[in-house]
């Protein structure tokens, strides 16, 4: 019948799968759009028909969604643009903006014009040397934002301010480049990830500085009577992170079962307040609610009802436990400012809000709580993170250990 295709014949765009006789690999091919705008045949390779079929479906799905296949002749800058579009879809907004900042300020200016498939370990090694030596003040465009009359840095005869990237910043920039090239390797655009050939120094993290119980009580005593009191109690007794405290909802608190679920976080990204999922799968979990925390939160809920009544129509109910005075997500910087004033009044100018989280973990470890239980409470992805960052021996424990050695014959 006219218009009816013959049996077994494929239509345009359907793609094909076949096994290569030379090495036995399965090849999935389809005509798709590439980043240059052309339609070209692209292939994916697999060791089984099922794997090849999955790769073909993914290739065609990306094409239907308007995600082009990068050309092999594309530059590092062009690929970074493509990679960031993938990151934006798959990662948290805060992660995306962190990656985008590194790409825009560091990677593209130095490596953007190089061909992706010709990037070498020497290129990356030279790039990391440039990163270590550069002035962050100039890189981040701070000169343009300086007040009139202020001395510029590295310009018009003025010396450099000497603000270099920290070891942690250098490591992060290298990690972003390494992640991008790993993605390019998976997409078969490069034969190997040359960033892995270049080693950077691992930053030495300071031991978590937790407070003594007496210090934590003094800090909370100073906060008593303020609308932030319940937040600080929750931080000190459960070790929630900054953003997790601000993202906590009443539906996440079960007073009957005495549990609290960490499900979302509040952060500022690219100049906007962002409410998103918890930091990681490990962070999103349910933990027991101590009696003292439960009592304080119940009193806080009653106080919030009075705030709601006073705000009237201005109140925007988001169901948050620690919102702004009109019910909206609280600005993290406002919390930082209040805590800065609180610690000054308490006579602890060097204490950070995050130290309350350290306090919970340190105290639990000092009490002999098994590390895996502390890990579950702190919601770390791995127990070695708990031990590496927080587990430290105090002077009393060291003295007791040394005194246990018998030196009677001396």
From TrEMBL:
Coiled coil: none annotated. Residues 206-403 form the Tyr recombinase domain. Residues 74-185 form the Core-binding (CB) domain. Gene3D superfamilies: 1.10.150.130, Intergrase catalytic core. Pfam families: Phage_int_SAM_3, Phage_integrase. Keywords: DNA integration, DNA recombination, DNA-binding. InterPro entries: CB (IPR044068), DNA_brk_join_enz (IPR011010), Integrase-like_cat_sf (IPR013762), Integrase_catalytic (IPR002104), Integrase_recombinase_N (IPR010998), Integrase_SAM-like_N (IPR004107), Phage_Integrase (IPR050808). Belongs to the 'phage' integrase family. PANTHER family: PROPHAGE INTEGRASE (PTHR30629), PROPHAGE INTEGRASE INTS-RELATED (PTHR30629:SF2). This is Site-specific integrase. It comes from Actinomycetospora aeridis.
């Amino acid at each position: 019948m006219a218009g009816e295709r013959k049996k077994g014949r494929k239509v345009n765009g359907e793609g094909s799968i076949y096994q290569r006789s030379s090495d036995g690999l399965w090849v999935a091919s389809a005509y798709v759009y590439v980043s240059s705008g052309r339609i070209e045949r692209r292939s994916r390779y697999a060791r089984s028909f099922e794997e090849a079929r999955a790769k073909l479906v993914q290739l065609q799905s990306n094409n239907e969604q308007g995600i082009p296949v990068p050309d092999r002749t594309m530059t590092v800058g062009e690929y970074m643009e493509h990679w960031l579009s993938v990151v934006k879809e798959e990662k948290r907004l805060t992660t995306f903006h962190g990656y985008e900042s590194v790409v825009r300020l560091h990677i593209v200016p130095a490596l953007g014009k190089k061909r992706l498939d010709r990037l070498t370990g020497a290129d990356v090694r030279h790039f990391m040397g440039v990163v270590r030596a550069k002035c962050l003040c100039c890189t981040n465009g701070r000169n343009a934002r300086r007040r009139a009359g202020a001395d510029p840095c590295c310009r018009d005869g003025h010396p450099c301010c000497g603000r270099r990237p920290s070891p942690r910043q250098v490591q992060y920039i290298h990690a972003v480049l390494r992640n991008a090239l790993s993605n390019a390797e998976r997409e078969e655009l490069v034969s190997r990830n040359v960033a892995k050939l270049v080693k950077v120094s691992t930053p030495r993290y300071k031991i978590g500085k937790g407070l003594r119980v007496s210090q934590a009580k003094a800090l909370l005593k100073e906060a008593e009577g303020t609308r932030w009191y319940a937040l600080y109690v929750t931080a000190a007794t459960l070790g929630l992170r900054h953003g997790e405290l601000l993202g906590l909802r009443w539906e996440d608190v079960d007073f009957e079962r005495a549990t609290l679920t960490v499900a979302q976080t509040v952060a500022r990204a690219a100049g906007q307040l962002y409410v998103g999922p918890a930091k990681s799968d490990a962070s999103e979990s349910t933990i027991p609610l101590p009696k003292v925390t439960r009592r304080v939160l119940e009193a806080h809920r009653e106080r919030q009802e009075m705030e709601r009544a006073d705000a009237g129509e201005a109140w925007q109910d988001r169901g948050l436990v620690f919102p702004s005075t009109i019910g909206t997500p609280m600005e993290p910087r406002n919390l930082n400012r209040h805590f800065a004033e609180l610690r000054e009044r308490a006579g602890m100018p060097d204490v950070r809000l995050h130290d309350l989280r350290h306090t919970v973990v340190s105290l639990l470890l000092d009490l002999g709580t098994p590390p895996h239980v502390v890990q579950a409470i702190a919601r770390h992805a791995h127990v070695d993170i708990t031990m590496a960052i927080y587990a430290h021996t105090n002077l009393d424990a060291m003295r007791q250990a040394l005194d246990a050695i018998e030196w009677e014959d001396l």
